[in-house]
């Protein structure tokens, strides 16, 4: 099922988020304004704001105005993180368009990412909720910790599954958890229901990143709309690579390590085949399925219509091709 059809319950609010987001990207100075125009034309899924809005609408008398503002801020944080990630990965394609760094260079792109973060936290601060500001500040710190931990473990061929999961929680999953928890708070849900939504978001985020890492190895650049094999080029050991190395014989493991270190299209083709044939991809997807089931189990307190929407989103995350 297409995500557009799944998220119909928040279409009108999401349109408001998109309009506000586009206005936040306008600036008085170039090239920031040019980058803002460029980003506003990129058709992102607005996945994280969707979680904020759905969680808010799970309750009665939700403060949808605040939820829309939080959704915009979250999308700005996400956009900033993508710009910084693309700089680190030297990526050239994002959402089927040139990355900001490939058009404007690394120096300007770093500042542009910082500018978006500043805009996001300015919006959050204006909501006059210290807990909200503190929560997202903590998550932004965790995202940086996750990125640094991943870089620190580059070409560490002994990295464990546990370490990998800790990294992706910090890089990706805690932000999704926050989206759900904050939305639930703005929906005036009970503490127990907010906790459940936060757990849903965390498990969903873990599964999302595992699927993303599988697609980075096996996906098509045209379907994904972004550069593939980026993690491997940077020596980042994702779950499929961890499983592939773990199941290999000593002799084959040495060969695989050489290919990962060497990089290039020829090495990528061999490693893609090995990841599929060794069962590393299917095993990784089974782990993702476990986290999707765990996410769904957290939805006991949601109302009927939105519970189905949350479940459909979880299925979409597991089955997506791009």
Helix content: over 70%
Alpha carbon gyration radius: 20 Å
Largest sheet: 2 strands, antiparallel
Largest beta sheet: strand ordering: 1-2
What is the typical, i.e. mean, pLDDT?
A: 92
- SS strand fraction: under 5%
The assigned structural class equals: mainly alpha
Q: What is the helix/strand order?
A: HHHHHEEHHHHHHHHHHHH
Indicate the low-confidence ranges by residue numbers.
Answer: none
The total domain count is: 1
CATH architecture: Orthogonal Bundle
Total strand count, please? 2
What sort of overall outline do the alpha carbons produce when their principal axes are compared? globular
Q: Give the full name of the CATH homologous superfamily.
A: Farnesyl Diphosphate Synthase
CATH topology name, in short, is Farnesyl Diphosphate Synthase
The first-to-last residue Cα distance is 13 Å
General description of the model:
The protein has a single domain, classed as Farnesyl Diphosphate Synthase (Orthogonal Bundle), CATH 1.10.600. Helix content is 75%, strand content 1%. It contains 17 helices and 2 strands. Strands 1-2 form a two-stranded antiparallel ribbon. Helix 8 runs antiparallel to helix 9 and helix 16 (280-297) runs antiparallel to helix 17. The model has no long low-confidence stretch (mean pLDDT 92).
């Amino acid at each position: 099922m297409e995500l557009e059809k799944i998220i119909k319950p928040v279409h009108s609010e999401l349109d408001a988020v998109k309009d506000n987001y586009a206005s936040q990207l306008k600036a008085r100075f170039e090239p920031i304004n040019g980058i803002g125009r460029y980003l506003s034309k990129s058709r992102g899924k607005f996945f994280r704001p969707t979680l904020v809005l759905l969680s808010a609408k799970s309750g009665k008398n939700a403060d949808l105005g605040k939820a829309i503002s939080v959704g915009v801020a979250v999308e700005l944080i996400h956009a900033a993180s993508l710009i910084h990630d693309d700089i680190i990965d030297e990526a050239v394609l994002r959402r089927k368009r040139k990355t900001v760094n490939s058009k404007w260079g690394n120096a300007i792109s770093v500042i542009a990412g910082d500018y978006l973060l500043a805009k996001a936290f300015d919006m959050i601060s204006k909501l006059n909720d210290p807990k909200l500001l503190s929560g997202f500040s903590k998550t932004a710190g965790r995202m940086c910790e996750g990125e640094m931990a991943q870089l620190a473990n580059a070409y560490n061929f002994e990295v464990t599954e546990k370490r990998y999961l800790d990294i992706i929680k910090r890089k990706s999953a805690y932000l999704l958890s926050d989206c759900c928890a904050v939305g639930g708070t703005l929906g005036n849900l009970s503490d127990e229901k907010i906790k459940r939504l936060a757990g849903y978001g965390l498990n969903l985020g873990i599964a999302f990143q595992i699927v993303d890492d599988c697609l980075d190895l096996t996906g098509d650049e045209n379907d994904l709309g972004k550069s593939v094999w980026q993690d491997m080029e940077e020596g980042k050991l994702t779950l499929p690579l961890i499983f592939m190395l773990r199941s290999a014989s000593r002799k084959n493991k040495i060969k695989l390590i050489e290919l990962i270190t060497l990089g290039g299209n020829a090495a990528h083709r061999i490693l893609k085949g090995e990841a599929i044939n060794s069962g590393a991809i299917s095993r990784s997807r089974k782990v993702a399925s476990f986290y999707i089931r765990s996410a769904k189990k957290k939805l006991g307190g949601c109302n009927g219509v939105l519970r189905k929407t949350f479940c459909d989103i979880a299925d979409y995350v597991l089955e997506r091709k791009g």
